[in-house]
Design a protein that fits this description.
The chain has 3 domains: about 160 residues, Glucose Oxidase, domain 1; about 70 residues, OB fold (Dihydrolipoamide Acetyltransferase, E2P) (Beta Barrel); about 60 residues, SH3 type barrels. Helices cover about 10% and strands about 40% of the residues. It starts with a strand and ends with a strand. The protein contains 4 helices and 29 strands. The chain has a 16-stranded mixed β-sheet that branches. A 4-stranded antiparallel β-sheet has the order 6-11-10-7. The protein has a 3-stranded antiparallel β-sheet with strand order 3-5-12, with no helix packed on it. The N terminus is likely disordered. It is mainly β and about 375 residues long.
Length: about 375
């Protein structure tokens, strides 16, 4: 059977995932191999060096730089307090003294008799890394972090904003084509991951954020509302670091787009279970997808007997179209011609034929689709 590789979105009822959790700089790992952890367990911590502030003490006191040591109250390595003096002149007969106060808490780093400047360092900033998912520590990276293995359901979205959060799954709609209206969102959803259907509008998202919903998973969201949410055009950066109260994950695309039936049914079957979510998305390259991880430690993994070994696109594969026309539409591959075909742009490309949900067939470049992996 003909097949071709294409990147795909995974929708797995049961799988085993490995998540690496690393510090930005070396620090302390505080869990051990074999430990069971929950999403909020701190697995490693460190301190980032504090910000540096330069104070030209010699200039402030009207002294030549070489005379700076004679007026310093604090020495290199001494702790300093904001508003407290670090240098003081002797004055005349003990009077008319001039002082320079520290602009911050921290430590005095160094004193320069060449520039007349004093370097102050603010207190170090603590950094903690949590487990993100419920699972087992399977590897420890000395001074850096850990790898955590989690068994459960795994769903990738097509786009998301907002960082890592966790909460109980709550399905707020009857079906994958129903809009998640603001009227369907209430105080009982605080701290939860709410599953919608085709779409959530600006009013609905604002209500969810005000209530304190941890995450929203829907088929689509309007592009103008995304710009309104972020306060700017998205560009081509990596999302996930936005300072927003609720992580938003889109499973299909922009606009009102019904959630894929398989995705919705899987999420509905996991209602009441805890999910870890992350909206981080690599916009163009597609190397990072928003995700939903639902730990199921006691479930059995499915047998792989008879599974395809090609790991690629085949006739019968489920796909999503990721470029116009038909952007966001789902379909099934019905043909994979070997020969290059000329497109409207006059370019020669490899194509595939796709049967869409409405029963119609279309021919598309293979680069215009991605596989939905089970």
């Amino acid at each position: 059977m003909a097949h071709a590789y294409t990147p795909g979105l995974r929708v797995s009822e049961m799988t085993v995932l490995r998540k690496e959790r690393r510090l930005p700089i070396k620090g302390d790992v505080i869990v051990s191999k074999g430990d069971r952890v929950s999403s909020d367990t701190i697995v490693a911590r460190t301190h980032l060096p504090g910000n540096v502030q330069l104070v030209n003490v010699a200039s402030k006191l009207g002294l030549p730089p070489e005379d700076l040591p004679s007026v310093m109250i604090k020495e290199a390595g001494d702790p300093i307090e904001k508003g407290k003096p670090i240098a003081m002149t002797k004055g005349f007969f003990g009077l008319f003294k001039a002082t320079v106060n520290s602009p911050c808490d921290g430590t005095l780093d160094s004193i320069s008799t060449i520039t007349g400047q004093v370097i102050l360092r603010e207190p170090p900033m603590p950094i903690e890394v949590d487990a993100y998912v419920d699972g087992e520590v399977v590897e420890v990276f000395e001074d850096e972090g850990v790898a955590i293995e989690v068994k459960g359901s795994f769903i990738q979205g097509i786009f998301g904003v907002g960082g890592e959060r966790a909460g109980e799954i709550h399905v707020a709609v009857e079906g994958p084509d129903q809009k998640l209206e603001a009227s369907l969102i209430d105080e009982s959803m605080k701290g939860k991951v709410v599953i919608g259907g085709s779409h959530i509008d600006w009013e609905g998202l604002q209500k969810a954020m005000k209530i304190g919903v941890n995450g929203i998973v829907v088929g689509g969201f309007d592009d103008p509302d995304l710009k309104r949410l972020l306060g700017k055009d998205l560009g081509v950066a990596i999302t996930g670091s936005e300072n927003i109260a609720t992580t938003l994950i889109l499973t299909e695309g922009f606009g009102a787009m019904g959630m894929a039936g398989g995705t919705f049914n899987l999420l509905k079957s996991r209602e009441g279970k805890k999910a870890s979510i992350n909206g981080a998305t690599q916009i163009r390259a597609g190397v990072m997808r928003p995700e939903i991880v639902i730990p199921m430690p006691d479930a059995e993994l499915p047998s792989r007997d008879g599974a395809s070994s090609s790991g690629g696109l085949e006739i019968g594969s489920s796909i999503r179209i990721i470029r116009e026309p038909h952007f966001g539409s789902l379909g099934t591959v019905t043909g994979l011609p070997n020969d290059l075909q000329k497109m409207e742009s006059e370019s020669m490309v490899r194509v595939l034929t796709v049967k869409l949900a409405d029963g119609s067939e279309t021919v598309l470049p293979r680069a215009n689709v991605e596989m939905i992996e089970g």
